[in-house]
Amino acid sequence: MPTREWTGEEVAAAAERLVPGSVARTTAGACYLKAEKLVEAIEALRSSPDTDFVHLTNLCGVDYWDHFEVVYHLQSFVRNQICCLKIEVWDREKAVAPSVVPVFHGAWMQECEAYDLLGIRFEGHPNLHRIFLWEGYPGWPLRKDFLSMPGGLQPGLNEFAGTARRPEPATRLVQ
Amino acid sequence: MEGFGVNFAFWTLSAVTLGAAGGVVVSRNLLHAVLFLILAFIGVAGFFVLLSAEFIAMAQVIIYVGAISVLVLFAVLLTPRAGRDNGETAMALPALLLAIAVATVFIFVVNDTNWTTVAKSPELATAELGTALLSTWVLPFELASVLLTAALVGAIMLVRSREEEAEDALA
Amino acid sequence: MTDAIKTEPFVLNIGPQHPSTHGVFRIKVTVDGEKVLDAEMVMGYLHRSMEKLAEERTYTQNIPFTDRTDYLSSMANNLGYCLAVEKLAGIGVPARGDAIRVIMAELQRLASHCMAVGAFTNDTGAWQTPVMWAFREREKILDIFEMTCGARLTCNYMRIGGVAFDLPAAFEPAVRKLLRELVPFIDEMEGLLVGNEIFLARTRGVGVLTPEQATNASLSGPLLRGSGIAWDLRKADPYCGYEQYDFDIPIGYQGDSFDRFIVRIEEMRQSIKIIKQALDGLPGGPHSTQVPLALRPPQGEAYARVEGSRGELGYYLVSDDGPSPYRFHIRAPSFINLSALKEMTVGGTVADAIVVLGSIDVVVGEIDR
Amino acid sequence: MALPTLVTEHWYDLRDLSNLSREILEGADKILPHGIVYVLAALIGFVASFLIFVLPSQLIVGVYGERKLIGRMQSRYGPNRVGPFGLLQPIADAIKLMQKEALTPKGADRAVMYLAPIIFVAPAVLLFAVIPFGPKMILADINPALLYFLAVSSLPVLAAFMAGWSANNKYSLFGAMRIVAMSISYEVPLVLALLGVVLFTGTTSLQEMVLWQKHFDIWIVFLQPLALAIYFIAVSAELNRTPTDIAEAESEIVAGYLTEYSGMKWGLFYGMDIGYALAASAFAATVFLGGWSMFGLDKWVPPWMIIIGKTHLFYFVFIWTRGTLPRLRIDQLMAFAWKFMLPVALLNLVLVATERMLWVEQELDDSYLYIFAVVNIWAALGAIWAWSRFLGYRPERNPVRARLVNEAGGYVPVPEAAKGGK
Amino acid sequence: MTLELEHFLTVGALLFSLGLFVALSKRNAIGVLMGVELMLNAVNLTLLSFSRFSVSERPVAGQTFVVFVITVAAAEAAVALALAVSVYRNRQTVDIDRINLLKS
Hints:
The complex is a heteropentamer of chains A (175), B (171), C (369), D (422) and E (104).
Chain A: E1 4-5, H1 8-18, E2 23-26, E3 31-33, H2 38-47, E4 55-63, E5 68-76, E6 81-89, E7 96-98, H3 107-118, E8 121-123
Parallel strand pairs in A: 1-6, 3-6, 7-8
Antiparallel strand pairs in A: 2-3, 4-5, 5-6
Chain B: H1 4-26, H2 30-50, H3 54-78, H4 92-112, H5 126-134, H6 138-159, H7 162-170
Chain C: E1 10-14, E2 26-32, E3 35-42, H1 50-54, H2 63-67, H3 74-89, H4 95-123, H5 129-149, E4 158-159, E5 162-163, H6 171-194, H7 197-203, H8 211-216, H9 222-226, H10 233-236, E6 249-251, H11 257-280, E7 300-307, E8 312-319, E9 327-331, H12 333-337, H13 341-345, H14 350-360, H15 364-368
Antiparallel strand pairs in C: 1-2, 2-3, 4-5, 7-8, 8-9
Helix pairs in contact in C: 3-4, 4-5, 4-11, 4-14, 5-6, 6-11, 11-14
């Protein structure tokens, strides 16, 4: 019996029932929550027996040029179901999302990863730091504009004996 | 005691032992001082061999070098780096004077007294020592064992931490 | 009297160059004597930014990348990625392709668990003997991979819509011979270690995780099952036709390092069982569906996961209708399993920390990606 | 009378190489000025014992044999490239080590770090002075030879400590702490085990011990199997052999006190580790396995070959344990020393003292020794069985096979029966 | 040159004085302990010298005394080091100048 993937509407209904006013919008596969209600809603979805989403399977951020999305996949062992929650983070310069570490300890490192590579700052994370790259690394590599960021990072070795700086690479723009 | 070998051994051992003891005095690093102390112990063990007390010499090496100095090293390691200084207190000068005075008196007394000695004393077997310990000296022997047990218990009690005591109280 | 008045706590760096970190990985442990007071993980020494690189390459070109994340189970990585792309693009796989994928994934699980069990016993201090024994068996499996796809470690065998080539004629007898040899080997390895009192003393009660802790820390794979949670994606969310095969989920008792070890041993037996069934019922027909080289899946997103050797291996792909993924995220089991490392090590000794790290069975290529 | 012409105490009598050296020395005494011959005797004895015993054993058994045997245990070939069967591998290793740079880390205590290997090497050489290789082949036939052995073998611990402390490396310091703590713990059962032997034979001279065993035609291992077991475990702890090699535990603290050593300085430690293990094996062969005596066989076979064989046999057990067993944790090792080894050593001591008392006081004849042997073997088996039964880990109480469930789901509670204890 | 009793006694006396100086002057409690150990060793040396040169037929008393001294020294070292560690834990110093709780 395969895992039942909840549609966005189902999740939205459950979330709205448990924490009224937490749902922003829904799509076919995912439910967009309001950022300020996220922790509350996730906590409710975890502890309510008919949703029982006890396991935070996956957490990642996606850069959509004008905004970020943070994607949460939650699953239940007993009920064998999985759902997808999302929040949108609009401020590109100071991208801030609430941290779910108080609810799911497993989010600790995944939020660090998202912060390190996408620059989304998770408020309430006990120890948010750059986990793969070193502190002070210029820019956030997984952002789509990484190579045209201020500071002029370029692919390849920037400093190599005898090589001049390469010309600006063409970056693919997705709009 | 005559002969080149004995003389050579005596003077070498004297130099090593007293030099090592001097090293204990002057070395600033506590760990170096302990290592010098071990050298002094080994020198003293050599003296014991020279005085035809092999058993005591071996016991000296086993106990002093193998156990006591290892204990000292352990204690040094348990105290942090800041506690590994081997400097003198303000009492160094009076202590030096006192030590010189004591040495002078001792050497004077040693050389002034007319000791009655024999050139060659009988060799003592280890078995004889053991027999003596368990017959003539049996009471002090037992007392020593009681002392050792008491010291063992005392040492364990002293270094127990609060948590260990709490654990034992629970158990 | 505060806690500070004890022997001086000091920081010991286990790694990045250390025999037991299985790669370049560092744990900064604060120790008081031998007791671990705090453990902090430092990683990134092998970071290659694969997720960024993958955004610049086509869907098919990304398959070799997945080999190089978890280099000890490249087949499972290939499989997970191909499943995600197939889910995204709505591509079906012929029955023979599915069966070949199952056989390969299970063989890879055997190879990976051989490595895990060997390295774990090496961490408990058995000086290389179990690891060499396990390597001997793993070599045989890698020989079969070489026979099938030409590569031993980074196989790059799965393709979107199936597998790269059909099986060679000598494949089936070779696998059957291998399975016959593996069964006594697993029994021997188990008998060698579970009856060993020193091994038991070193692993029992070390790094205990309650089921609640394991769930909350998002663990998966043998760690989750070692804590007694019956969760295996091959059963819970069957892919590639796993629902046709008869096998069981091994679970542990109290969630310590030893339980993870016996779960791995038992999983090897179950894998053998699955491979036998898949070989017996190997269907004919094409091994792959035809997929355009410049695949352009429709706009959308997909999250597909497989039960890798180390846990739930998930791929989250976002497509913008272009020839390469817009976002390529790997849910790396080794990385997320490390979340619980601190809980498991603090309070134990340094030696326990090594055993715990061995029982998690990390692959640094997958942690850092 | 296999070779009657060869066993005539002439210089070519291979049974005892001291015949040869005696001939040489007597000849030399006639030409050389008086007294030099004593120096020459010491030199010849030292060089001979080193050349015949220590060096070949170290190279062939210690380096080549260990690697080859462990290689076979690990189902691989072991060294097989240099020379026939890879026999020249130790020499190639030595050449490589000598060419390597011996690094000294910044912030290290240089003097101590240089001294440590030297202090480590000296006792290993000194230890062989008291081992009897034959009726007359013994360098220093001193009376408290057993105590000498114990005293000298406590020195390398200091050298290891110096090495670990001086390198200014945390792993080294860990190794130093561990070796110091462990050597203190394991010295106690070691001495107690040997005390039983001394008690029974009534001597601390190794040569006399061998003669005692030769006289009564029984090896002490049969009389005191517990003592040998304790000696083996304690000595392998002191020597840092697996399963008690926590001071240089490779998987935990890299190489312990040797972490910062390289080149020939490391080579000295490595070689002398083998030297100590060989010395401990030779000592065990002498004290427990009858030394150069072999139930009358020593009349025909050269005694020095017998003891070398026994030593290598004992050393093989070291290799064997190294190839098979995992390592214990330090607290488990300490608990083992104090909670098991010490009581068992005391038990052994009491048993032996009682038997000795009976034997001497009642003036029993020699055949009672065999009764004692049977009693002691049973006592040893009983002690070990009782310990593993009541204090041990009892693996049969713990489930060693994973549970199997067929359906995925949440947590499956552990049945009470399978919970088990520690 | 013949070695007499005086030679050994002189070495003993010098060793004792050095030990005395170490014991009195060192600031570190473990240093003080080392001085005491040196003094005990000097005493042992003296005792054994007397035993060796004694006119007695069976001069076993000297060696027996040394055995007792070594025993007591071992016990003393254990307790003293335990004290040093314990003092360090409570006062964070082994400097005997600063272990002055009884001083107002």
